[in-house]
């Protein structure tokens, strides 16, 4: 099956809350990207990001942290659009908000959250609301930029 189709199946499974099936599908898509030498692609970063979202939603923040960090690292290497990078920044900031122990981790959380908020504010303009820091808002930034 095409990797993009596998990824979109994951989205379809996640929408009605079939998290285990969605997680397995995103994992399969990520494995397929690695098998096709695409481990530094935006598609691979998207799979990792979605896996991080599911892990975070399930309360597995340590696992989520790894997925979000790896996704952000790929996006930064690729120099992706702000709307793409901000999703991974926000996810990692949410995780660090719960697991940060050292002062360095706490500072990184504040920095990531501040950057994410500034980017979202810039992209949303008049539609920006401070309480809108949810996954859907960040996903919507991508949809809005690429229409």
From TrEMBL:
Gene3D superfamilies reported in the protein's UniProt record: Tetratricopeptide repeat domain
InterPro entries registered for this protein in UniProt: TPR-like_helical_dom_sf (IPR011990)
Superkingdom of the source species: Eukaryota
Protein name per UniProt: Tetratricopeptide repeat protein
UniProt organism field: Setomelanomma holmii
């Amino acid at each position: 099956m095409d990797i993009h189709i596998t990824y979109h199946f994951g989205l379809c499974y996640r929408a009605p809350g079939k998290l285990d099936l969605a997680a397995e599908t995103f994992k399969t898509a990520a494995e397929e990207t690695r098998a096709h030498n695409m481990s530094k692609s935006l598609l691979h970063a998207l799979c990792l990001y979605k896996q991080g979202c599911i892990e975070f939603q399930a309360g597995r923040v340590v696992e989520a942290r790894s997925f979000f960090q790896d996704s952000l690292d790929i996006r930064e290497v690729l120099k992706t659009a702000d709307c793409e990078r901000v999703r991974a920044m926000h996810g990692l900031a949410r995780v660090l908000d719960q697991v940060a122990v050292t002062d360095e981790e706490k500072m990184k959380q504040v920095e990531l959250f501040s950057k994410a908020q500034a980017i979202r504010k810039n992209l949303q303009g008049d539609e920006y609301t401070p309480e809108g820091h949810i996954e859907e808002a960040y996903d919507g930034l991508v949809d809005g930029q690429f229409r």
